[in-house]
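Quick question, first post here. What does this chain look like in 3D?
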Amino acid sequence: MEPSGKSPCPRWLNSTVLGIGLASLLSDWSHEIATTAMPAFLATMGVAAAWVGLIEGVSDGLSSFAKLASGHWTDRLPRRKPIMVIGYLVTALGTAGFGLATTAWHVLLARATAWLGRGTRTPVRKALLAAAVTRKTYGRAFGFERMMDTLGAIVGPATAFFLLNALGHDYARLFFWTLVPGLAAVAAIVFLVKEKQRTRVASVSFRDGLRQLPVRYRKFLVAVGLFGAGDFAHTLLILLAAQSLSPTLGTTGAASAAVGLYVAHNVFYAGFALLAGWLADRVSKPKLLAAGYGLATLMALAIVALPLGPWVLAGVFILGGVYVAIEETLEDSFCAELVGEEQHGMAFGVLATVNGVGDFLSSVIVGALWSAFGISVAFSYSAVLFATGAFLVLRAGSAEDAKKASG
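> Answer (accepted):
Ran it through. Tokens below.
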């Protein structure tokens, strides 16, 4: 029996949710240290800039494949937690493996290994998170995890800056230090995450697993895919700010201001992730997700239509942080609501893969349009896809509301 007094913390914030949140923070802290230092480390090898793109592209591709495969198989296993532990451990070891690299190929191998582990654990983590709470608290649980993950993205670069100076730019030692938060993330999963007993789902082929996903989930996936095709990497916003501010602040001043704006972007992302989750448990998830997509549309239109001075750029970065917080929190919590728990692994794996493909395509297309036709064409392309995604999410939500009302 539960005690009659009130619990000192919300019921959704249980040991499993806390453990997953801490693991996200610590693991992101670990690999953000390496990500921040990686370009400068490669530069010491005399490596061309194309290597950075190759390393990221191969790693992201493997990660997307791993998400899809892991999502399919995790629903068929009696226990998911061991896969999650292995995924976090592989990510920690792969990231620290940068310290053994003497050529760009070694960095590629280490990064690909780390991202393979990261992809494997993603749908498992989301399935365990959804299983740890009730449907009424999906939003808060996923919002908390996103907030913790983003805090790691804020602390990681700052730690890299400190370690580089403290260690005299000894990159090997810096990369080995990533083991501290990386292994702490593994410990958080081992000791805090409690997996509920579940019935193993009958084994089916990958194709049959896809076919068994509900039609309403597939419609949601179309909206996510179209939005994602315009949702460029926000490192492009850093480039935009640096170029726009350089005439008045100079190259060095503009670069510093751009980094500062990106820090603000991440602060708003972290802050609004939990708020978005709280709102998601109280209002229509499709409408709130559509509102997030709408903020992305406003951001893109502001870039196209307004003079890109300091205040406009500050607004652009803030809108960017807020809409990503809403987007990522609501996509995960709405996905968990649309699909039965026995299919959560598959659903989260497919969602993560669609987002991964969208991230790759959108950044390539927006970058190419920017280079060929300028800022207006590039970000108008994004605005159209953002607005289309918002419309389709609203349609999916209206159909679902009508179905509930008739039932």
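DSSP finds 14 helices and no strands in the chain.
Confidence is low (pLDDT under 50) at residues 1-5.
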